[in-house]
Amino acid sequence: MKIALATLLLAAGLVAGTGALAQVPNLEAVRAAAEKGDAQGQALLGMALLVGRGTPRNEAAGIDWLKKAADQGNAMGQGFLGYAYLEGLGVPKDVVQGMAWTRKSAVQGLAAAQATLARLYFAGQDVPVNDEEAVKWMRLAANQGNRDGQRLLGAAFATGRGVPKDLDEARKWLQLAANQGDDEAKSALALLAGNAPSPRVSANDFERMKALAESGNREAQHNLAFMYYEGKVVPENQALAAQWYRKAAEQGLVTSQFNLAVHYATGSGLPKDMSQAVHWYLLAAEQHHAKAMYNLSIAYERGEGVTRDLVEAAMWVRLAAKSGHEQAAKSMAQVDAKLRPDEIADANRRTALWLKTNPKP
Fold first, then answer.
1. Are 158 and 168 in contact, with CB atoms under 8 Å apart?
2. Topology (CATH) of 198-285
3. What is the predicted pLDDT for the residue at 361?
């Protein structure tokens, strides 16, 4: 929620366009207006006190002023108060109160509050996921020029959540957010460059993604690896592909873990090593990667990189099938045909135990 707070602060003039906190202009005049009952002054004074901007931090006093502004129907005061309840800042965390005040503010048209609702519904943070509701608030915020709303709407179009998938629309909204200095939007644009249906990607896109990858962004590392693997955007280089997949895999990115395992299994870009392939398949499988589970079942069935173990193979093929791998569902009977009834029962027991101890995120 830090970005939402930054947007609220920007709306209030308590943060500079660069994202750095700014001094409150003429705080005494703001205080005087607040004490005379001016709702906007109360909202500004409340937030200044809440975050300690231009005045010593005093959360209790800040909340009092925000409540006064919110009770008068001031959209900014409602938005700030909603944020405080959602984050437990100056008050005990209360999602119901936080959502209620944020919605009041959003209905009045405060773009920052609209973006906050969009984010909460899109991520399922404190509330159930609701893509339709999320997109409604994203559009309202984005159309007011709110960069959070623009970035979120871009993400919705990129993933097809709540709207038909449309990469051109995704790039349009992400670019609008990036033009306002949104680093997450810049990162997303670079990642989209790696997944674009056309191999014609600009040099700027590639260099931006490479810079992100070198800074440690695991998604950028994965997409850079794919570019080297595919050889459309840059000359094919399987060694560099494996190198960048490893960097992302070591940060826990499941698809990179699987792809690195495939590089080891095929000897593409690095020496073939089935024990290393099994190692990375296992890490991906622990994150419920269906293909990794299926490949583990094959490894155990054949004894490649591990000691041959048909019961373990049967467990992994079951897990792969339960995770939606179609070929695993077809192969299960073939693996079971090599087992005794007690071994099948053991495989079922292991499967149930694995699922219990490795709940799906």
1. no
2. 1.25.40
3. 60
